[in-house]
Amino acid sequence: MTSTTTSKPLLEVKNLHLSFDLDLQKGHTVRDAFVQLLRAPVKTLLERKNVHPVLEDISFSMEKGDIMAVIGENGSGKTSLCRCIAGMIMAQQGIINKPDNIQAVFSTASAIHFSLTGKENAYLLGELLFPSLSKRELRDVIEEALVFSDLGKFQEAPFYTYSKGMQARLFLSVVTARPTELLILDEVYDGADEFFQDKMKERMHKVIYESGAVLFISHNAELLSQICNKALVIHERKLAFQGGNVKKALALYKNLHRGAYKTGS
Amino acid sequence: MIQIFSRQLVSLTLANMKARYRKTFAGFLWVILNPIILYSVQSVVFRKILKIELPDYSLFLLGGLLPWIFITSTLEMSIPYLYNSHNLLRGFRINPFLLILCQVLDNFLNFLIAFVIILIPMMILTENQQSAFYYLPLPILVLLISIASISSLASLMNVFYRDTKFVLTFILNIMYFITPIFYPVEFVPTEYRWIIDMNPLFYLVEAFRSAVYNFEPSYFWMSLIKAFLISLFFALISFLYWKKRKNDLYYYI
Lengths: 265, 253
What we know:
- The complex is a heterodimer of chains A (265) and B (253).
- Chain A is an alpha/beta fold and 265 residues long.
- Chain A has a domain at 11-101 and 180-264: Rossmann fold (3-Layer(aba) Sandwich), CATH 3.40.50.300.
- Chain A is 39% helix and 23% strand.
- Chain A has helices at residues 30-39, 41-46, 78-86, 118-129, 135-149, 164-175, 198-210, 221-227, 246-264, and strands at 11-21, 51-62, 67-72, 93-97, 102-105, 182-186, 213-217, 230-235, 238-243.
- In chain A, the strands form 2 sheets. In chain A, strands 5-6-7-3-8-9 form a 6-stranded mixed β-sheet, sandwiched between helices.
- Chain A starts with 10 loop residues before the first strand and ends with a helix.
- By secondary structure, chain B is mainly α.
- Chain B has one domain.
- Chain B contains 11 helices and no strands.
- Chain B is globular and about 55 Å long.
- Chain A binds chain B through residues 18, 20-22, 28-31, 33, 80, 83, 86-90, 102-107, 109-113, 115-116, 120, 124, 127-129, 131-132, 171, 175, and chain B through 4, 7-8, 11-12, 15-16, 18-19, 22, 87-88, 90-94, 157, 160-164, 167, 245-248, 250-251.
């Protein structure tokens, strides 16, 4: 799992800044906004947007073969960082050089249409996740995933009849069907442990090791130190640590966390 | 890139229709029945009770009603869609615009079906009428662009202002009466014409209808150009709003 080349990194993030507009004080309805505008027109129109910073000056890079742990408290910006890299949101500042083929998973169970069958959903999901495959290749991939999911005759049942575990099984079977250049996994293990029989774990590990590189968000310290060879620690929007010592990163995170508790109480 | 987008769009739209009309022929029948029932009731009320005098009133009414039904049903379906798809949007990378566009296309197909099954026979059966079949694709295209733009704009707004759909439904209900759909624009007294001139939906409907009913080249082209400018306007506003607020989408859903 050591990187052999020092040429171009697979992923390069430089001086990334991200913020978003948060108007918690303002009403969340058109009617509220309208009343506010009538009550204090000048103030409402001139009022500056409440800009909420999410990430500040993040820079790091990944080589082929890296499995990078992303560690941080809830709300520290881990998911936002991954969404930026996946191309779902645009950063206000900074450069991201990334491979074309990125797979990002932020949930264990998503369906396109709850009233369609699991099989139909699997095909739609395949088309959205692996757009470069031909119809034929896609069919092979999805059929394999369906067999793996062990849903049997439930494949033909509407998705809304599925239990949480079945939803996760189908979704993850499709998602892990093919390796990719850069795989982003956001807490897909956490809180869903009960759905992960050994078989699924094995498949997940397989796709992790076959993919070009992996960004891995998790709160499971044991798992992180087991499979990752690099780590990022995000603390209060900034990068607090990056490097190859995952254990050190985890220890630092623990300290930061404790510190935050002390100042908070 | 465009090839992938259109392939995904087609698959999603088909899945959408499948989910909606699954195994129920009634679901599909409703696409035809809905405009026919609305049309029949209005036709009786306005012709027999209110006694609007207009040659070939049926064709006139249908020519305005079909695009209007397309506008309102698309908006009603697509506006809450983005917010309601939060699970999907949060789960993995999917173009949110794709989700709205497949709602629009789904409704557009309904519109085309109603158009072919109801309006075209009506155009053929109505004698002594000037209709221009071959020009119809133009106003239909302009209508499609406008509705796609308005839908995507309002759907994103609905994420930040959750009552957008109620407010818009309310506005559309009012608009139905101040848009010349069941009465011709000539009936409107000159001192109230400004209301019509300010109404963007009127030109979208009128460009379509002027090719169906009483076709006059100069009037048709003028309406079409106005409708086209309106569609460009909405497309631009929608584009700018999306550019500005697409990021925030993920924090509000």
